[in-house]
Amino acid sequence: MFQAPSVFTRAPLPPATREPEPRREQTPTPTTAAPARPEAPPKAAKRRDPYFDNVKYLAIVLVAVAHAWEPVMDDSRATRALYMIVYTFHMPAFILISGYFSRTFDMSAPKVKRLITGVVVPYVLFETAYSLFKRYVDDSPDTSISLVDPLFLTWFLIALFIWRVTTPIWLKLRHPLPVALAIAMLASVSPDIGDDLDLQRVFQFLPFFVLGLLMKPEHFQLVRRRKVRLLALPLFAGALLFAYWIAPRMQLGWLYRANSAQEMDAPWWSGAVMSLALFGCALALTIGFLAWVPRRNMWFTVLGAGTICGYLLHGFLIKGAVYTGLFDRHTWLSGPVGLVLVSVVAAGAVTLMCSPPVARALKFATEPDMRWAFRKDPAKR
């Protein structure tokens, strides 16, 4: 993350005054020379906070495991309930952290360059790759390459671009979160928004990004208190019981936030109600999740820096298994043993995808060096 330079200027020095004569009882200094000003210590390199790397890694594991459950959970009410709980908070948590680390974004040249190389370019490359993957592996020759209709999980990149570009606006508003919630509610009752740029998700997930912009380090200190961790246990237990009860009755489309209420054949007013209800549930479960994330360095902490690779790559594994009919041929994967196996494989695969060797190998796509594409700073010529 680039840090905004300091905008404070040095105040004018007070007018010089004559040094007072030392009292006789004071011992004069051994030299009249001005004491040497101590050298400023070298600026320490910015260190990554292990807590946030742990959050990102654990969140991306939940994303991959939940995606792996989708093709095999229909015969298991318990798995569907777990899926609903995970889907209620895993992307909100990821988006909130993204907002938190976007607080210093402005339209300065270095940050715009990083936005293009770290978000826009990966979106273009992986949207194209997923389209071609579906066309040839799924034997769907009619699949077109469309940069305005995100395929599968690439929607998050275009959403992050839109959210981050609008960050200066949200930081200037007096009440940004209520405004974001109002936009989400309006989107949920607006079927004419359409599929372009997956704007339904952009608008309906917007409050979590804005909330992240408003977060401060002390808020995370409050979340990580022992009392919050203890309260999180009955919270998740109650959520699991409620999800098990409602699993056969609730449409999963509410959790995806990709459609309006009318598109899900629900009354129009239910969109606004569900937007507020899901925001409250997601926020409570996100707090419970953040409370239990380890604060110290763990064996997986280093993987937090490579979560973009795990996010973008694991879709090929999941969709490849679906396109090739793996789950249709092996129906036992829908049973208890199969569900455990699918979960372990998904978690293990995304862990490998987040590893430093993979991150280095994929740097050309996720963080390319594109100095050739930008004008040089006149000050550096």
- Our estimate of the beta-strand percent is under 5%
Number of strands: 0
Counting DSSP H or I runs of 4 or more residues, the number of helices is 17
Distance between the termini: 24 Å
Helix content: 55-70%
Q: Which structural class fits the helix and strand makeup?
A: mainly alpha
Q: Could you describe the largest sheet, including whether it forms a barrel?
A: none
Low-confidence stretches: 1-45
What is the mean predicted local confidence, pLDDT?
87
What is the molecular shape?
A: globular
Tell me the series of helices and strands, N- to C-terminal. Answer: HHHHHHHHHHHHHHHHH
CA radius of gyration is: 26 Å
Descriptive terms for the model:
59% helix; 381 residues; single chain; mainly alpha
